[in-house]
User: Fold Alcohol dehydrogenase from Flavobacterium pokkalii.
Amino acid sequence: MKRIQFNNYGDASKMYLGEYELAQLKPNDVQVRVKAAAVNPLDWKQRRGDLKLFMNKKFPKGIGNDFSGIVEAIGSNVQNIKVGDEVFGTMDVKHPGAFAEKLITNSKYVTKKPINISHADASCLPIAAAVAWAALFIKGNVTQNSRVLINGCMGAVGSIAVQLAKEKGAWIAGTCSKKDIEEARKNGVNEVYEFTENNYWKKTQPFDVVFDTAGLMQQRIGFSMLKSNGKFIDINPTPMSMLKGLFIAKYKFTFATAAMKHLSDFANLAEKGILKAKIGKETNISKAIEILTEIENGNGAKGRTVIIF
Ligand SMILES: NC(=O)c1ccc[n+]([C@@H]2O[C@H](COP(=O)([O-])OP(=O)(O)OC[C@H]3O[C@@H](n4cnc5c(N)ncnc54)[C@H](OP(=O)(O)O)[C@@H]3O)[C@@H](O)[C@H]2O)c1
Assistant:
């Protein structure tokens, strides 16, 4: 079987399209023939070694996390999924490898794909929807009465966060590049700021939640926009900011894993047309390394990139 893999941590040149053999299926695992796999920043962060403390030690390692496909085999304990089901899901952070013809993952990271959405659309959901859900509803306790600012509201995570917050009935402000302001308004962002605009944060009323998807907002500025009991939510924490987070009540950090158990909620929302990622480019496995390198270097297409098998 073919997959994109690497033999040691490092830059984009470490990736190659290689042959591999699937591991033995464990009792809670499912084996999936991949139909589509979406690109996330996590993919190259794992390959660079940024998360090596959390990863399995063996090489070669696969790359890629979010996927959609068809179940080919199930472990002896798997109850909710059967061979032939169309599913979408993600990989355990210890064992990436979704940019592959076939993969094995734990069934807890997989749910049935609604029939009215494509494999490409489904593959874009898991990490972006899980981290947005964790930030807004687990850490931020967002309700219909909340005022929420989403920093980076047109990114993969930010645009899904807008959809989730809007569905909840919250009032949303967002920041994005100048080119995206009109589209952000069309997406339902009530007040849109260009993130380079000087002191935009002084123009607005305080928020219950400031969700910094981009990881580029100074905490001092984020905190200055909060109500007294508001929360600043970071999904790109550094060791130092995580340490601070343990002592500062209004600073919260979170990871997608905190809400991966809500995959079936994402499926329901996608089925109703409430959750939908914007796909910018589709490619195939033989061109994927070139495209992944472009995205990593900041030269990718606008919207999500999906590898179609
Ligand atoms: N903790 C977790 O579990 C978790 C999960 C998913 C993602 N993440 C992290 O979250 C980050 C965002 O991921 P993503 O997939 O949404 O990436 P993305 O699609 O590239 O979105 C990033 C967005 O930030 C915008 N941006 C750039 N500079 C900005 C600034 N100075 N202020 C505000 N916004 C700015 C970009 O706008 P332009 O494109 O117009 O420049 C883009 O829309 C990544 O670092 C990723 O690793 C963490």
